[in-house]
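[Solved] Which block belongs to which protein?

Original post:
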Amino acid sequence: MKQLISVTPAHTVIYFTGDEIITREVEIKAELPRPLTLTPIQFSLGGTVSYRIDEVEKGKRFKISFRNVPGQIGNFRGVLKLQTNYPEKPELAVLISVQYVGTQKGS
Protein backbone atom coordinates (compact mmCIF):
# COMPACT_ATOMS: atom_id res chain seq x y z
CA MET A 1 0.00 0.00 0.00
CA LYS A 2 1.30 3.45 -0.93
CA GLN A 3 2.30 5.73 1.92
CA LEU A 4 -0.17 8.64 2.16
CA ILE A 5 1.92 10.95 4.32
CA SER A 6 5.63 10.69 5.12
CA VAL A 7 7.15 11.86 8.41
CA THR A 8 10.95 12.31 8.54
CA PRO A 9 12.37 11.31 10.93
CA ALA A 10 9.61 8.93 12.00
CA HIS A 11 10.49 9.22 15.71
CA THR A 12 12.04 12.43 16.94
CA VAL A 13 14.65 12.05 19.69
CA ILE A 14 15.79 15.36 21.16
CA TYR A 15 18.79 15.83 23.46
CA PHE A 16 19.23 19.15 25.23
CA THR A 17 22.18 20.26 27.34
CA GLY A 18 21.84 22.91 30.04
CA ASP A 19 19.83 26.00 29.18
CA GLU A 20 20.81 26.49 25.54
CA ILE A 21 17.94 26.85 23.08
CA ILE A 22 17.95 24.02 20.55
CA THR A 23 15.48 23.33 17.75
CA ARG A 24 14.85 19.97 16.07
CA GLU A 25 12.79 19.65 12.90
CA VAL A 26 10.44 17.06 11.48
CA GLU A 27 9.27 17.16 7.88
CA ILE A 28 5.78 16.03 6.89
CA LYS A 29 5.12 15.49 3.21
CA ALA A 30 1.91 14.66 1.33
CA GLU A 31 2.43 11.64 -0.91
CA LEU A 32 -0.93 12.06 -2.69
CA PRO A 33 -1.59 14.52 -5.54
CA ARG A 34 -4.19 16.43 -3.50
CA PRO A 35 -3.43 19.16 -0.92
CA LEU A 36 -2.86 18.22 2.71
CA THR A 37 -3.96 20.26 5.70
CA LEU A 38 -2.73 19.69 9.26
CA THR A 39 -4.48 20.84 12.43
CA PRO A 40 -2.96 20.20 15.90
CA ILE A 41 -5.39 18.36 18.18
CA GLN A 42 -3.18 17.19 21.07
CA PHE A 43 0.33 17.89 22.37
CA SER A 44 1.39 16.01 25.49
CA LEU A 45 4.69 17.84 26.10
CA GLY A 46 3.41 21.37 26.68
CA GLY A 47 5.63 23.17 29.19
CA THR A 48 8.52 20.82 28.38
CA VAL A 49 8.89 21.44 24.63
CA SER A 50 7.28 24.00 22.34
CA TYR A 51 6.52 23.50 18.66
CA ARG A 52 5.67 25.46 15.54
CA ILE A 53 4.22 24.22 12.24
CA ASP A 54 5.30 25.95 9.02
CA GLU A 55 3.87 25.20 5.59
CA VAL A 56 6.98 25.01 3.37
CA GLU A 57 5.17 24.11 0.14
CA LYS A 58 1.44 24.87 0.09
CA GLY A 59 -0.60 21.73 0.72
CA LYS A 60 2.45 19.51 0.12
CA ARG A 61 5.28 19.97 2.65
CA PHE A 62 5.31 21.05 6.28
CA LYS A 63 8.08 21.59 8.81
CA ILE A 64 7.47 21.14 12.53
CA SER A 65 10.09 22.79 14.73
CA PHE A 66 10.39 21.47 18.29
CA ARG A 67 12.21 23.71 20.77
CA ASN A 68 13.31 23.07 24.32
CA VAL A 69 11.98 25.00 27.31
CA PRO A 70 15.04 25.98 29.43
CA GLY A 71 15.23 24.82 33.04
CA GLN A 72 13.89 21.29 32.49
CA ILE A 73 15.52 18.15 33.90
CA GLY A 74 14.82 14.52 33.03
CA ASN A 75 13.46 12.36 30.23
CA PHE A 76 10.07 12.81 28.60
CA ARG A 77 8.08 10.97 25.95
CA GLY A 78 5.12 12.43 24.21
CA VAL A 79 3.15 12.88 21.05
CA LEU A 80 1.92 15.65 18.79
CA LYS A 81 -1.36 14.52 17.23
CA LEU A 82 -2.44 16.21 14.03
CA GLN A 83 -5.77 16.02 12.25
CA THR A 84 -5.51 15.75 8.46
CA ASN A 85 -8.03 16.30 5.70
CA TYR A 86 -7.30 12.85 4.24
CA PRO A 87 -10.20 10.47 5.04
CA GLU A 88 -7.78 7.54 4.52
CA LYS A 89 -5.53 8.91 7.30
CA PRO A 90 -7.57 11.30 9.47
CA GLU A 91 -4.98 11.47 12.25
CA LEU A 92 -1.19 11.61 12.29
CA ALA A 93 0.98 11.15 15.39
CA VAL A 94 4.53 12.51 15.70
CA LEU A 95 6.32 10.64 18.53
CA ILE A 96 8.84 12.61 20.55
CA SER A 97 11.46 11.52 23.10
CA VAL A 98 13.20 14.32 24.99
CA GLN A 99 16.25 13.98 27.21
CA TYR A 100 17.49 16.97 29.16
CA VAL A 101 21.16 16.38 30.03
CA GLY A 102 23.00 18.44 32.65
CA THR A 103 25.80 20.71 31.51
CA GLN A 104 29.18 19.01 31.84
CA LYS A 105 31.85 21.09 33.56
CA GLY A 106 35.50 20.99 32.50
CA SER A 107 34.97 19.42 29.09
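(Second protein starts here: sequence line, then its C-alpha coordinates.)
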Amino acid sequence: MTDFWKLFFHDLIPICICVVLPTLVIWLIGRVKQNETNRKAEIMLKALDNGAIIDSDFFKGQSGSKTIKERLLGRLTGACVTGVLGLVFILVAIIPEWPGHWDYSDSPAPMLIILGGILLAIGIALFIVYFTGKKLMAKEIVSEEKQILGEK
Protein backbone atom coordinates (compact mmCIF):
# COMPACT_ATOMS: atom_id res chain seq x y z
CA MET A 1 0.00 0.00 0.00
CA THR A 2 2.90 2.39 0.59
CA ASP A 3 4.00 2.01 -3.03
CA PHE A 4 0.57 3.23 -4.10
CA TRP A 5 0.88 6.37 -1.97
CA LYS A 6 4.43 7.02 -3.16
CA LEU A 7 3.31 6.82 -6.77
CA PHE A 8 0.21 8.87 -6.01
CA PHE A 9 2.14 11.75 -4.46
CA HIS A 10 4.92 11.41 -7.02
CA ASP A 11 2.33 12.04 -9.78
CA LEU A 12 0.31 14.54 -7.76
CA ILE A 13 3.07 17.16 -7.47
CA PRO A 14 3.55 17.65 -11.25
CA ILE A 15 -0.21 17.72 -11.77
CA CYS A 16 -0.59 20.41 -9.10
CA ILE A 17 2.25 22.48 -10.55
CA CYS A 18 1.21 22.14 -14.19
CA VAL A 19 -2.59 22.20 -13.88
CA VAL A 20 -3.83 23.51 -10.54
CA LEU A 21 -1.33 26.35 -10.07
CA PRO A 22 -1.88 28.01 -13.49
CA THR A 23 -5.63 27.58 -13.12
CA LEU A 24 -5.58 29.29 -9.73
CA VAL A 25 -3.43 32.14 -11.03
CA ILE A 26 -5.81 32.77 -13.93
CA TRP A 27 -8.82 32.55 -11.62
CA LEU A 28 -7.26 35.04 -9.16
CA ILE A 29 -6.42 37.49 -11.95
CA GLY A 30 -9.99 37.23 -13.21
CA ARG A 31 -11.38 37.86 -9.73
CA VAL A 32 -9.17 40.94 -9.27
CA LYS A 33 -10.34 42.40 -12.58
CA GLN A 34 -13.96 41.60 -11.78
CA ASN A 35 -13.71 43.26 -8.35
CA GLU A 36 -12.10 46.33 -9.90
CA THR A 37 -14.90 46.59 -12.47
CA ASN A 38 -17.54 46.14 -9.77
CA ARG A 39 -16.01 48.92 -7.66
CA LYS A 40 -15.88 51.28 -10.63
CA ALA A 41 -19.49 50.47 -11.45
CA GLU A 42 -20.49 51.19 -7.85
CA ILE A 43 -18.72 54.55 -7.91
CA MET A 44 -20.31 55.37 -11.26
CA LEU A 45 -23.80 54.53 -9.96
CA LYS A 46 -23.30 56.66 -6.85
CA ALA A 47 -22.06 59.53 -8.99
CA LEU A 48 -25.15 59.21 -11.20
CA ASP A 49 -27.41 59.22 -8.14
CA ASN A 50 -25.76 62.40 -6.84
CA GLY A 51 -25.96 64.10 -10.25
CA ALA A 52 -22.21 64.46 -10.69
CA ILE A 53 -20.55 64.92 -14.07
CA ILE A 54 -19.22 61.58 -15.32
CA ASP A 55 -15.87 61.29 -17.06
CA SER A 56 -16.06 59.14 -20.18
CA ASP A 57 -12.54 57.76 -19.60
CA PHE A 58 -13.50 56.36 -16.20
CA PHE A 59 -13.62 52.71 -17.28
CA LYS A 60 -10.48 52.81 -19.40
CA GLY A 61 -7.74 50.85 -17.69
CA GLN A 62 -4.35 52.40 -17.08
CA SER A 63 -2.47 49.09 -17.25
CA GLY A 64 -3.42 48.34 -20.85
CA SER A 65 -2.30 51.67 -22.29
CA LYS A 66 1.22 51.01 -23.49
CA THR A 67 2.95 53.52 -25.70
CA ILE A 68 4.21 52.62 -29.13
CA LYS A 69 7.77 52.77 -27.85
CA GLU A 70 7.00 50.33 -25.01
CA ARG A 71 5.39 47.86 -27.41
CA LEU A 72 8.38 48.08 -29.78
CA LEU A 73 10.81 47.55 -26.91
CA GLY A 74 8.80 44.51 -25.84
CA ARG A 75 9.18 43.10 -29.33
CA LEU A 76 12.92 43.83 -29.26
CA THR A 77 13.24 42.02 -25.93
CA GLY A 78 11.32 39.04 -27.29
CA ALA A 79 13.49 39.03 -30.40
CA CYS A 80 16.68 38.98 -28.34
CA VAL A 81 15.49 36.20 -26.04
CA THR A 82 14.11 33.91 -28.75
CA GLY A 83 17.03 34.55 -31.10
CA VAL A 84 19.65 33.77 -28.48
CA LEU A 85 17.77 30.66 -27.32
CA GLY A 86 17.50 29.46 -30.91
CA LEU A 87 21.21 29.97 -31.50
CA VAL A 88 22.11 28.18 -28.26
CA PHE A 89 19.89 25.19 -29.11
CA ILE A 90 21.37 24.92 -32.59
CA LEU A 91 24.94 25.22 -31.28
CA VAL A 92 24.36 22.59 -28.59
CA ALA A 93 23.06 20.20 -31.22
CA ILE A 94 25.72 20.90 -33.85
CA ILE A 95 29.00 21.16 -31.93
CA PRO A 96 30.35 17.60 -31.60
CA GLU A 97 32.92 18.49 -28.93
CA TRP A 98 30.19 19.70 -26.60
CA PRO A 99 30.44 18.25 -23.08
CA GLY A 100 28.18 15.25 -23.06
CA HIS A 101 28.87 14.56 -26.78
CA TRP A 102 25.71 13.52 -28.66
CA ASP A 103 25.26 10.20 -30.36
CA TYR A 104 22.98 11.18 -33.25
CA SER A 105 21.25 7.81 -33.45
CA ASP A 106 19.41 8.23 -30.15
CA SER A 107 19.97 11.82 -29.13
CA PRO A 108 17.81 14.91 -28.79
CA ALA A 109 20.04 16.74 -31.30
CA PRO A 110 17.61 16.65 -34.26
CA MET A 111 14.83 17.94 -32.04
CA LEU A 112 17.11 20.67 -30.68
CA ILE A 113 17.96 21.75 -34.23
CA ILE A 114 14.27 21.94 -35.15
CA LEU A 115 13.34 23.80 -31.96
CA GLY A 116 16.35 26.09 -32.31
CA GLY A 117 15.41 26.84 -35.91
CA ILE A 118 11.86 27.72 -34.91
CA LEU A 119 13.03 29.99 -32.09
CA LEU A 120 15.63 31.63 -34.33
CA ALA A 121 13.00 32.26 -37.01
CA ILE A 122 10.68 33.86 -34.45
CA GLY A 123 13.55 36.00 -33.16
CA ILE A 124 14.46 37.18 -36.66
CA ALA A 125 10.79 37.94 -37.40
CA LEU A 126 10.51 40.00 -34.21
CA PHE A 127 13.70 41.89 -35.12
CA ILE A 128 12.20 42.69 -38.53
CA VAL A 129 8.94 43.83 -36.92
CA TYR A 130 10.85 46.00 -34.45
CA PHE A 131 12.99 47.77 -37.05
CA THR A 132 10.11 48.20 -39.51
CA GLY A 133 7.81 49.46 -36.78
CA LYS A 134 10.47 51.86 -35.56
CA LYS A 135 10.92 53.24 -39.06
CA LEU A 136 7.21 53.44 -39.90
CA MET A 137 6.06 54.78 -36.55
CA ALA A 138 8.80 57.39 -36.01
CA LYS A 139 6.40 60.34 -36.35
CA GLU A 140 3.84 58.77 -34.03
CA ILE A 141 6.50 58.01 -31.42
CA VAL A 142 7.71 61.63 -31.48
CA SER A 143 4.17 63.01 -31.19
CA GLU A 144 3.36 60.56 -28.39
CA GLU A 145 6.48 61.62 -26.47
CA LYS A 146 5.56 65.30 -26.91
CA GLN A 147 2.06 64.57 -25.65
CA ILE A 148 3.41 62.71 -22.60
CA LEU A 149 5.92 65.46 -21.82
CA GLY A 150 3.24 68.10 -22.32
CA GLU A 151 1.00 66.47 -19.71
CA LYS A 152 3.69 66.33 -17.04
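Accepted answer:
You had them paired correctly. Confirming on the second one: Residues 2-50 form the longest helix (49 residues).
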